[in-house]
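Standup notes
- HV: blocked on the assembly model, inputs below
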Amino acid sequence: MRLRDLGFSKLTYSEIILTISHDDAINVAPMGVLLEDDKRLSLRVYKGQRTCELIVKGAIDCVLNITCSSTLFYDAVFKKSEISYSPSETVSSPRVRGCDAYVECSVIDVEDCGEYVRVLLKPQLIRVSRKIIKAYNRAEPAVIEALVCFTKILHLIKNNVEMAESLKERIKIFREIVYHSTRNKKLRMMVTEILERAEEVIREKKAMDKH
Ligand SMILES: Cc1cc2nc3c(=O)[nH]c(=O)nc-3n(C[C@H](O)[C@H](O)[C@H](O)COP(=O)(O)O)c2cc1C
């Protein structure tokens, strides 16, 4: 199995769930990955996040957990402590249980690019646990897009409330898509919670600015 067969590309970010460990600390978070060449991948990890902290402290490996499950993406942002792990075969960072495939990687370079660090990865092992054929649905990607907006709000709320507001409006659109395309209660609950959390973050920031 080659990286390209798993959907990795030089042009388009593939969204995965990254597990990374350093000493006893383990962190999990959704991240975008680009193919650099046939043997290397790269991440752009923004500063101020725990993932970045572990990388800068010297984490030597990580796992790219591949899944389309919006629940796993949601848990990786909001319910990290409920994520269940299993050991990897070649690296110290664990896998997230229940994913479709895993790419175990060594960290081979970390470059400081100001707002973010660029992390170069060398895959050590690719393991496909499930070959899935699943028809596309609109609800799960909409939940993941709403999560992207929410995590961006967290990143820029300090300096740009206007942008945060406009991202919140986008989350409302994704919520409409979810409600329009599924009766699944869990998906509806997740997107509603994402919107409520976004509203809360913006409300708190505005209240602080008033004082
Ligand atoms: C689908 C998706 C893709 C993301 N891609 C990135 C990324 O490439 N780089 C990044 O720094 N943050 C990215 N994020 C945001 C982080 O996952 C988010 O800020 C997370 O809460 C960081 O967790 P941490 O502080 O535990 O590291 C992404 C979020 C989502 C939902």
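- HV (later): unblocked. Residues 15, 27, 29-32, 44-46, 49-51, 73, 77, 144, 147-148, 151 surround flavin mononucleotide (CB under 6 Å). The first helix runs from residue 50 to 57.
- Next: hand off to the docking folks.
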